[in-house]
Amino acid sequence: MQRMVKTTTNGDVTLAYETFGAEGRPILLLGGAAGQMVMWPADFCTALVHKGFRVARMDNRGTGRSTDPSRHDFTGDDVADDIVAVLDDLGWSAATLLGWSEGGFWAKVAALRHPDRVHCLVSLNSGPVVRPWITGPGLTTAWRVFRVMRRRLTTAEEYGQLWVDVWRIAGSTVYPVDEDHWRDAARLAFPYVNPDGDKRLAKALLRTGDLRKRLGKLTVPTLVLHGEEDSVVRPRAGRETAKAVPGARLVTFPGMGHDLPRELWPRIVDEISRTSGWGTAVEAEQGQHDVVDDGGDGGVVDHDAVEQGFAAQEVEGHP
């Protein structure tokens, strides 16, 4: 498996990304608030490669290895242009965008601003707006995570423990926290932690506003995936996304929280492949939104702003 980190630019912003697989259908992974591209498990990227995708994961501006030296305000349109800059550098005319939490919000903005560059939109535990009564998080979850995120950190080991503790709160109720992954990811991410960049992205999200009316004009094939036990981004956020986008497919997973449990990867990868039209044929006609409920791994979806909610609360000064 060939892996490499590269950089490109959008104006004075430097954007870092990593690729998996030498060829295949293009898919770009966008992470959530306070996250870096290494938060996407490498084994999950490999699973997508085995399904026929060529995978890229990127750091948003001002986070991880991506830099933003300017101090001016920006909006979601600027982040969408960052995404397109990475697609350009990869030589991809269009790609599937898979966005997790806040990354799902940016993926939606990119699909609205550059519909010709988005082959398929996949929203994972993410929503179209940050509103406490829609996206959450619940007060108990928010307070518990807030207390963990306020820790003063001096080592990569402490940073790894922080993420393990966050996912013990925000993760799935029936699937174990992948502690090895989060500790390894934290070790790689720690040298590039930039709280100021995270806050600026959160402010840009709030500044961008409610996407629901705009999403009504979206024609890009859309899949909404959500954990039914997501206490950070409430399932209602996923339903709001599916309701807003004509033809969106909504798939939920019992027992899944705001995380990405390894046990569900086969189903999640298959759903992405089906919706993108690459791999297994897409089932059924797309109505206002398909609800997939097989009585097992998937059910009615409900999803959105776990990390968005945390970031928004921090920006607004609420615990």
What is the strand tally?
9
| Sequence of strands across the biggest β-sheet | 1-2-4-3-5-6-7-8-9
CATH superfamily: Alpha/Beta hydrolase fold, catalytic domain
- Fraction of residues in helix: 40-55%
Under CATH at level 1, the class stands as: Alpha Beta
Major β-sheet profile: 9 strands, mixed
Question: What does the overall shape look like?
Answer: globular
CATH topology annotation:
Rossmann fold
**What's the overall average pLDDT, rounded?**
87
Write the CATH architecture name. 3-Layer(aba) Sandwich
Number of helices: 12
Radius of gyration, CA atoms, in whole angstroms? 18 Å
Span of the ends, CA to CA? 43 Å
Summarize the helix and strand pattern as letters: EEEHEHEHEHHHHHHEHEHEH
By secondary-structure content and strand pairing, the structural class works out as alpha/beta
Which residues sit in consecutive blocks of at least 5 with pLDDT less than 50?
279-319
Whole-number total of structural domains? 1
Proportion of β residues? 15-25%
